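Note on ligand handling. Small-molecule inputs were canonicalized before submission; formal charges were left as drawn, and no protonation-state enumeration was performed. Where a ligand contained multiple stereocentres, the stereochemistry in the source SMILES was retained. For S-adenosylmethionine, this procedure yielded the string shown in the input block below.
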Amino acid sequence: MPQPISENPPPVPADPAAGPTEWNSHPVGVGPWGEERTDPLPTDPRYDPELLADGDRRNVVDAYRYWTRGAIVEDIDSRRHPLHIGIENFGHDANIGTVVRTANAFAAAAVHIVGRRRWNRRGAMVTDRYQHLEHHEDVEQLMEYASAHGLEVVAVDNVPGSEPIERVELPRNCLLLFGQEGPGVSAEAQRQAALTVSIAQFGSTRSINAGVAAGIVMHTWVRQHADLAAAW
Ligand SMILES: C[S@@+](CC[C@H](N)C(=O)[O-])C[C@H]1O[C@@H](n2cnc3c(N)ncnc32)[C@H](O)[C@@H]1O
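Structure output:
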């Protein structure tokens, strides 16, 4: 039975075999405020009294140490990008956690799961708690959302007729839609998208992992539209 990932795990190694990104396997973050610094406890309401007392071992950037989750989300909300991420989940795609984590890293406005509501959260490594997530029953609903919010939908798949991402200027108000292992982006989504883009490949495999593809294309958007001076 998989163990739920604690957001503030104990600093003692829980699993010596865990990989380098399984941060509950070694102490990261900070201990109680009084052990880390000599200045008085902050009274700013963004700080969480429990984290100040017990330490903060969460997977958050140093700027958010000891902050409540609500305060962190509010701060990211104040500077999220007009970049939305969609992923089709008609067959239970295992890559959604990775997509959510990367969307969080790039301060995407929201991640939209299309199809099944349930998805494996393990790959998200708790980042989903700071990321707005929306669910849509089908592609039609997603497209309605995009049109109501002024977003241009860009399908991402290496199918005939797709344009190379390496040469395309992505729309600023953008919803990038990824497909799932196996079928890829559904024909319906490709038909309704403003354009479909592909990532250049040179080897024997038909495609790359959907989570990796999402990282590449999200970063292309970041390179084209984000204010790099505002990055951590
Ligand atoms: C494993 S692929 C499957 C579909 C693929 N068209 C095929 O023929 O096998 C799953 C998803 O990853 C993304 N993907 C993988 N490789 C890609 C590439 N070279 N260009 C664009 N998207 C890609 C797409 O979103 C795709 O729907």
